[in-house]
Design brief:
six-stranded mixed beta sheet; alpha/beta; 19% strand; 8 helices
């Protein structure tokens, strides 16, 4: 297996760190070397939270500009902000349900147009999978499962050498018991959404 570099970007409270933990544990289950690092911005104030995960042999967790094989964005504007990590071969998955920043909420800023965001991403990368992950999470039974919906989409791409069953097994053991069934449904809904994109 060659080295695969993944960036996950979100705003505080969207579950980026749990998604990273599930992926890391699933990689270990699959006997794949994995290295992870996280950047916590003003997460409690809706700021960016970014994870870098490298699968395979690597000496560092740093993913330089243009090096990401995969980018998963839990929020469309944050996906666009991380576009510099991508290249013409990168596969990008983004949630299309925006979480407008405080400045937009008080009328001091303008949220970027979703169609324009998608056009900019498509112009720079190999593939874009864009869908409303919040709607899928609600269908699964909890808006809090957006992170697991997006994991489903990620695994559906086939870019990572981690199976759906390895993720399901990790969801069963690493997420709270009360949310296991919802998370398993969210994972499958994310896979279905990616398959249609």
């Amino acid at each position: 297996m060659g080295t695969k570099r993944l960036i996950i970007t979100a705003v505080g409270g969207q579950g980026n760190l749990l998604a990273s933990k599930v992926l890391g544990e699933a990689a270990l289950l699959a006997n794949i070397p994995v290295r992870m690092s996280e950047i916590h911005g003003m997460a409690q104030r809706g700021g960016v939270v970014e994870s870098a995960i490298i699968f395979g042999e690597a000496h560092s967790t740093i993913i330089s500009d243009g090096e990401a094989d995969l980018l998963v964005g839990f929020e469309p504007a944050e996906t666009l902000r991380a576009l510099g990590k991508c290249n013409s071969e990168t596969v990008v998955i983004t949630n299309l349900a925006p979480t407008p920043p405080f400045t937009v909420a008080i009328g001091k800023g303008i949220y970027p147009d979703l169609e324009e965001i998608q056009a900019l991403i498509r112009a720079k990368t190999a593939r874009l999978i864009a869908f409303d992950a919040v709607a899928c999470a609600k269908e699964a039974g909890s808006i809090m499962s957006v992170n697991i919906v997006l994991l489903g989409a990620l695994i559906q791409t086939g870019v990572l050498p981690i199976s759906a069953e390895e993720i399901r097994s990790t969801i069963r053991t690493k997420t709270k018991a009360a949310f296991v069934d919802v998370n398993l449904k969210a994972f499958d809904l994310g896979r279905e959404a990616a398959a249609k994109s």
